[in-house]
Amino acid sequence: MALLNLLECAVQTLPNDLDTYWMPFTANRQFKQAPRMLVAAEGMYYRSRDNRQILDGTSGLWCVNAGHARPEITETVHRQLATLDYAPSFQMGHPIAFEAAAKLRALLPPPLGHVFFTNSGSESVDTALKIALAYHQVRGQGSRTRLIGRERGYHGVGFGGISVGGIPGNRRQFGAQLPGVDHLPHTHNLAENAFSRGQPAWGAHLADDLERIIALHDPSTIAAVIVEPMAGSTGVLMPPKGYLERLRDICTRYGILLIFDEVITGFGRLGGHAFAAQKFGVTPDMITMAKGLTNGAIPMGAVATSDEIHATFMAQPNQAAIELAHGYTYSGHPVACAAAIATLDIYRRDGLFARAEELASHFENAAHALRDAPHVIDIRNMGLVAGIELASRPGQPGARAYETFVRCFENGTLIRVTGDIIALSPPLIISRQQIDELFEAARNALEAVA
Ligand SMILES: Cc1ncc(COP(=O)(O)O)c(C=O)c1O
Description:
- With 450 residues, this protein is an alpha/beta fold.
- It folds into two domains: 2-66 and 351-448, Aspartate Aminotransferase, domain 1 (Alpha-Beta Complex); 74-349, Type I PLP-dependent aspartate aminotransferase-like (Major domain) (Aspartate Aminotransferase, domain 2, 3-Layer(aba) Sandwich), CATH 3.40.640.
- It contains 16 helices and 15 strands.
- It has a seven-stranded mixed beta sheet, with helices on both faces. Strands 1-2-3-13 form a four-stranded mixed beta sheet. Strands 11-12-15-14 form a four-stranded antiparallel beta sheet, covered by helices on one side.
- A hairpin with a 2-residue loop joins strand 1 and strand 2.
- Helix 4 (95-105) runs parallel beside helix 13, helix 14 (352-368) runs parallel beside helix 16 and helix 15 (399-410) packs across helix 16 (432-448).
- The longest helix is centred in the first third of the chain and has 18 residues, at 121-138.
- The two termini are 36 Å apart.
- The model has no long low-confidence stretch (mean pLDDT 97).
């Protein structure tokens, strides 16, 4: 661990100006009173500004699935920057983008055989929603303009994403959003499902609410349903057994596209497979992804579409016309593509999706061992992700989990909290011993907070 060698790293000083940078999804004023700064990373660890080693229990922000500072990615990115730093992707091509798409396709469940590149999860979501609307228009069903999301869903922060998303705090500041959006009920139910391991037994029938929404609006008006197969950002909600299958069945019956937002679940998080679609054996019409696509090293996202969706666009009569009026300056950015190729090679070569599956039962047992820890009212898990829900301190929702997070950081472990739920999602390279350390750190913090 040369990078973490204390002799090598000078203690970093705080930047003089903490004020100018407006931090995302952060209580800026609170943070700047007592900043938590990370200055380096390698493998399973960050290094803090004050030179402490911090165990990464969250893969950064659910993205560093192969562990930090992988030399294979660093070197490939470096080489690519020196060879072709940027090239436009509108009416021009560069081979590495085609190579990255083909490599990604090899991981996708058929018939998802085509890939549109974006730069983030939010862009992937907005892209998928736009593809859904345009697809129906191209095939002569332009009345299908409604989009269905789900309560507690997180689909990023674009206007499309917050509209179909179902996290009230992410919506309330931003006006009316997209029209013609409805929401399925969320699937969280502590009375029925607390302390489930893997998929909870109760709740498949909640998918039937889609029938009610379809009847209300008429199927001819509905373009797509978008859900996270496992709702991540809201606090790790596993799909009830049979739930996704029912959604798939209803969508198919009514000609509605089903989109799985796999920005978090993609690239092995649930163990055994690249995508949750494969884990659950339910194939959507589109998958949105980002994060683990490049191991977090370079921003990149993608939308995978079915062959049928792609073929519908390509069957438009005018060969000289642009089939989909959509794209980003940095779609298929050569450096991002290089990072993706190197990342996907690591996943394959190191067998990281299988590794996540091998570690899953150890991780599950370590998670559920917290059942008797103070404040814990639920634990849920699959693969290398766990949600630990705490009873809220009366009148102070979120405070207990936030204090747990701060305490963990002070003691050398990075966890993530959302409301009063702790979400743990370490890199897939984590060892059994580090899994034990991670949950031990959570227990110690829980025992210390009021
Ligand atoms: C399911 C899901 N969709 C979309 C996003 C948004 O991704 P980004 O922050 O890269 O825009 C996230 C981010 O956590 C996510 O979890």
